[in-house]
Write a structure and sequence with these properties.
By secondary structure, this protein is of the alpha/beta class. It has a single domain, classed as 3-Layer(aba) Sandwich (Rossmann fold), CATH 3.40.50. It has 7 helices and 10 strands. It has a 10-stranded mixed beta sheet, with helices on both faces. Strand 6 and strand 7 form a beta hairpin. Helix 4 crosses helix 5. About 40% of the residues are buried. The structure holds glutamine. Glutamine binds next to strand 7. Belongs to the CarA family. InterPro entries: Anth_synth/Amidotransfase (IPR050472), Class_I_gatase-like (IPR029062), CPSase_GATase1 (IPR035686), GATASE (IPR017926). Heterodimer composed of 2 chains; the small (or glutamine) chain promotes the hydrolysis of glutamine to ammonia, which is used by the large (or ammonia) chain to synthesize carbamoyl phosphate.
């Protein structure tokens, strides 16, 4: 454990201190509490590898509630090992510190991009953006806390989000093909990107956060990001079409009962 004063962490790898030491399967022990998608839920639907840069429990719960069977791996886990596991998707987590301080992880992300669908949150978003060629910078104050308005450029909605980051991605540094999907309305900074050609999406804020009563969760726009990730994996699965056909065949049986 070490202590750093505010502003003293540029260029320091802080992920190394918080990542897990070896891979493990994550199993949700409180699933009823976090049931967002009970209809048609099947945990075995998507096998995902989640890189742990300091991963938040709520992220694991939300991914599981959308049908993901999750293997959590350390930040140093080689891309080649991940690809050998033949996952349906890879998730890059939130995590502390400067994304420029972990070029070895950016290399890992680069090796994975384009091979399987990918989703990143906060640090994960920054590392994906850097792997695509973008540049990060230290913000003056950062964004910390709830009530951060974000413009979702895809559906033209404003999302009220929870955020906790001190670095951001310069959208001008991103290459052609990368779409800025979300913009922070307070200061115009990049709050999310997508690269549809490579099945990549990432978000700077915390869609898993629960700043208010859980009873309203089904109304919160931002949790659809988890759904979007599973939809992206579903489309990428070679047998996705067959599976849908199977579900259609099952429906009359459900109605008859
Ligand atoms: N919550 C996070 O993942 C933080 C992202 C990054 N470490 C930052 O401070 O900008």
């Amino acid at each position: 454990m070490f202590m750093l004063s505010y502003g003293n962490y540029v260029g320091i790898d802080m992920i190394d201190c918080v990542s897990c030491e070896s891979p493990y399967e994550w199993v949700d022990e409180t699933e009823s509490e976090w049931e967002f998608n009970s209809k048609g839920r099947d945990r075995n639907t998507f096998n995902i590898v989640a890189y742990d840069f300091g991963i938040k429990l709520n992220i694991l719960k939300r991914l599981a509630s959308y049908g993901c069977k999750i293997t959590v791996v350390p930040s140093t886990w080689p891309a080649s090992e991940t690809l050998k596991m033949n996952p349906d998707g890879v998730f890059f987590s939130n995590g502390p510190g400067d994304p420029s301080a972990v070029p070895h992880i950016v290399e890992t992300v680069k090796e994975i991009l384009g091979k399987v669908p990918v989703f990143g949150i906060c640090m994960g978003h920054q590392l994906i953006s850097k792997a695509l060629g973008g540049k990060s910078f230290k913000m003056k104050f950062g964004h910390h806390g709830g009530n951060q308005p974000v413009h979702n450029l895809r559906n033209n909605h404003v999302e009220i989000s929870s955020q906790n980051h001190s670095f951001a991605i310069d959208p001008a540094s991103l290459p052609n093909g990368v779409e800025v999907t979300h913009v922070n309305l307070n200061d115009g900074t990049c709050a999310g990107i997508a690269y549809p050609a490579l099945n990549v999406m990432s978000i700077q804020y915390h869609p898993e956060a629960s700043p208010g009563p859980g009873v309203l969760d089904h109304m919160i726009q931002i949790i659809v990001l988890f759904k979007e990730f599973t939809e992206m994996m579903k489309k990428n699965k070679p047998f996705a079409a067959e599976e849908e056909h199977f579900q259609v065949l099952q429906e009359p049986l459900v109605c008859a009962a």
